[in-house]
Design brief:
With about 525 residues, the chain is an alpha/beta fold. It is built from 17 helices and 18 strands. It has four domains: about 5-280, TIM Barrel (Alpha-Beta Barrel); about 295-325, no CATH class; about 330-385, no CATH class; about 395-505, Alpha-isopropylmalate synthase LeuA, regulatory domain (Double Stranded RNA Binding Domain, 2-Layer Sandwich), CATH 3.30.160. The strands form five sheets. Strands 2-3-4-5-6-7-8-9 form an eight-stranded parallel beta barrel, surrounded by eight helices. The protein has a three-stranded antiparallel β-sheet with strand order 13-14-15. Helix 1 packs parallel to helix 2. The two termini are about 45 Å apart. Bound molecules: 3-methyl-2-oxobutanoic acid and zinc ion.
Length: about 525
């Protein structure tokens, strides 16, 4: 098979963000966009501009800074949404309008309450409107894998005639199986008379754990040449196709796929860590490519084999995907220049001088507690920085807590609330419980704690603990993340960060839910 190019379309900041609790601020999205650009993703779907003013601003900011990737925005198939997309994206060097409408009988009838003819008409009008402003238009028939192929062919032929340059077939509910899905794409390309005038793409969800397999079958059997995916497979329900898995599958099995991507694979692990730190979605240790154990050879037989010849048990190297193998980078005596240089090497850019000064101060505080500072520590430290502008409703000033086998644990916390200081105390079943009760005694959020998880940032007992707290209130779910060498302090930071997210008005529409 001749070598060919596979386009990687990342939707971490749109479909990934639709996952409950994964919502990101404008600044967080900007940091992720820069990392995706550094990783050489072809298309970055930056958001759904009509969902909220916040998302519109985030998409616009990304469109204005990204130069080496196309920036896309999702729009429902109506003029208002598409115009919002055009307004957010038009400053970009290269931009794409991605418009969609459901085409399965179930979605048209029950969700849209439209006839197939109305859907066809709306798809045509939407692509025509988008094409007037933007040469690069992608069309997706939502729930495509469960749509009637005859109707799908009519819609796709019509939108290509209107100028759609990419046709993306979604497996919206993760229902497809690889061979069948690959065949479906092949048949569609065969049957749609003008199919050669568009790039064919797939967008799979992982409800049955087959998103990556389905995407690769669509490429191999169906001839698709764009895969839509997310970092860490983040996404609604069981998530989307995982970017790192498709990229490394195509690269490691070049003999089979005969395809090339533009991705700089050494940026995969930094991207994975960044997305995990920002969203609070922890990566499972045995996750392919980016899990902590993905390259750990624990069993004696494997270790022996790897030492004799790496290829006995390793099909790719940890370095290929950007594992930095716990490098000690800085210590207590490191100065501002060394600190800044290492951030630069890690691809971390802060917004302004004040950001660097604050991050450096936090680094010095950390170096007082921890002799060796690793790359992972710096990444956690900078991730924290984003949530500490001082403008949030709540902040942690200081805290102490005590626990013994004889008495109930107790926590005393000094918090900042809209600029003034407030004291809080609480007792609980454990030190974390006491800390959260103390915070709640003054915050009175009434939120329900859905998740509390702790991860070590590096190895050893000196490691920083990274805590994720997930809170729910009134149907809204948010994640807060905190890191510190003291896991109780990290827990307090994570809880406070979640409270601040609950307080912020980040209400967004989900593009696929009918109002
Ligand atoms: O899953 C889906 O169908 C989507 C479309 C909007 C592309 O995310
Ligand atoms: Zn989707």
């Amino acid at each position: 098979m001749a070598t060919d190019k596979l386009i990687i379309f990342d939707t971490t900041m749109r479909d990934g963000e639709q996952s409950p609790g994964a919502s990101m601020t404008r600044d967080e999205k900007l940091r992720i966009a820069r990392q995706l650009e550094r990783m050489k993703v072809d298309v970055i779907e930056a958001g759904f501009p009509a969902s909220s003013n916040g998302d519109f601003e985030a998409v616009r900011a990304i469109a204005n800074v990204v130069k080496d990737s196309t920036v896309a925005g999702l729009c429902r198939a109506n003029d208002k949404d598409i115009q919002r997309g055009i307004d957010a994206l038009k400053g970009a060097k290269s931009w794409r309008i991605h418009t969609f409408i459901a085409t399965s009988a179930l979605h048209m009838d029950k969700k849209l309450r439209m006839t197939p003819e109305q859907v066809l008409e709306q798809a045509i009008l939407a692509v025509r409107y988008a094409k007037n402003a933007c040469p690069d238009v992608e069309f997706s028939p939502e729930d495509g894998s469960r749509s009637d192929p005859d109707f799908l062919c009519r819609v796709l032929e019509a939108v290509i005639r209107q100028g759609a340059t990419t046709i993306n077939i979604p497996d919206t509910v993760g229902y497809a199986v690889p061979e069948q899905f690959g065949e479906m794409i092949r048949r569609l390309r065969e049957r749609v008379p003008n199919s050669d005038q568009a790039m064919w793409s797939v967008h799979c969800h992982n409800d049955l754990g087959m998103a990556v397999a389905n995407s690769l079958a669509a490429v191999r059997i169906g001839g698709a040449r764009q895969i839509e995916c997310t970092v860490n497979g983040l996404g609604e329900r069981a998530g989307n196709t995982s970017l790192e898995e498709v990229v490394m599958a195509v690269r490691t099995r070049r003999d089979f796929f005969g395809l090339e991507t533009r991705i700089d694979t050494t940026q995969i692990v930094p991207a994975s860590r960044l997305v995990s730190q920002i969203t609070g979605f922890v990566v499972q240790p045995n996750k392919a490519v980016v899990g902590a154990n993905a390259f750990a050879h624990a069993s004696g037989i494997h270790q022996d084999g790897v030492l004799k010849a790496r290829e006995t048990y390793e099909i790719m190297t940890a370095e290929d995907v950007g594992w930095s193998t716990n490098k000690i980078v800085l210590g207590k005596l490191s100065g501002r220049t060394a600190f800044r240089q290492r951030l630069k090497e890690l691809g971390i850019e802060l917004e302004n001088e004040e950001g660097y000064n604050k991050a450096f101060q936090r680094f010095k505080d950390l170096a007082d507690k921890k002799a060796e500072i690793f790359d992972e520590d710096l990444q956690a430290l900078v991730a924290q920085e984003a949530g500490t502008t001082g403008e949030e409703e709540w902040g942690l000033v200081s805290m102490s807590q005590g626990s013994s086998t004889a008495d109930k644990p107790h926590a005393a916390i000094l918090m900042r609330h809209n600029g003034s200081e407030v004291k809080a105390e609480g007792k609980g079943d454990g030190p974390v419980d006491a800390t959260f009760k103390a915070i709640e005694s003054v915050a009175r959020s009434g939120a329900e704690l859905l998740l509390f998880s702790v991860n070590a940032v590096t190895q050893g007992t000196e490691s920083q603990g990274e805590v994720t707290v997930r809170l729910a209130r009134g149907g809204r779910i948010v994640n807060g993340v905190g890191a510190d060498t003291d896991i109780i302090v990290a827990s307090a930071k994570a809880y406070i960060s979640a409270l601040n997210k609950l307080a912020s008005k980040m209400e967004r529409l989900n593009p696929q839910h009918q109002p």
